[in-house]
Amino acid sequence: MVKIDKHMDKQNELMKQMNAQLKTGPIEHSATTTTNKGIRPVHENFMQDKMEIHIDNKTKLKLHCLHQHYLKLRKNQKNQKLIDLLGKLEFNQVVIFVKSISRCTALCKFLTEQGFPAIEIHREIPEEKRLARYKEFKEFQKCILVATNLFERGIDIERVNIVFNYDMPEDTDTYLHRVVRAGRFGTKGLAITYVVNESDLAILNAIQNRFEVQITEMPNEIDTDTYVENR
User: CA Rg, the chain, in Å?
Assistant: First the structure.
């Protein structure tokens, strides 16, 4: 109980500081791709002349010119296929989503050893270091980021044009928030999802049914113009 009280005191103090800063220097424009009932009161407290736009799920996936494919393979083929695709596809920056911290660290190490320098972001990395790594990626110092779902919401990096679901997301919402990392701001993008078993296939079907989109099997060749801007 003491820990909870201290945490609440810290949060209350943070809110006071934010209120003070906003009174002296109000934010003229602010936007978020997603919101929910829990966070809406915070938006209402800090934003003036707010406007909330509701976009249907189908539009969310289509308005970014996003091309989506799946790739059937065995679990032990994932790494080599990833290396093959990174060597074959043309990209500005790539985000690779995995399901666990241990896999995030291992995959980042593997990619670097294979000549694809990458950085990792997950919840066990101290916040200060996470922010520094995010800044490094955003400033285009690194082209490949391996991340857990910690990175899926609220992160906008314009240069990302390819997202890999190295591990299948656990639900349709997670898929949505992952793949829109590519093709932000109306640019082109490519999402590639690994399918290993029947459970993965069931989630893939649920994604297609919910969003009324067709995620096609990965072709041998992909027209670069479909996922790279200004070509």
Answer: 19
State which H helix or E strand residue 211 sits in.
helix 198-211
- pTM metric for this prediction: 0.74
d(CA 162, CA 116): 15
- Pairing of the two strands 66-72 and 216-217: parallel
Q: Quick check: 156 and 184 in contact, CB under 8 A?
A: yes
Strands (DSSP E) along the chain, which ranges? 66-72, 93-97, 118-121, 144-147, 160-165, 189-195, 216-217
Of the candidates 126, 128, 177, the one whose C-alpha atom is nearest the C-alpha of residue 149 is: 177
**What gap in Å lies between CA 229 and CA 209, rounded to an integer?**
29
Tens-digit pLDDT profile for residues 8-45: 455 555 555 555 554 455 444 444 555 555 555 555 55
Phi, psi of 214 (to 5 degrees): -110, 115
Helices 172-179 and 198-211, packing angle to 10 deg: 70
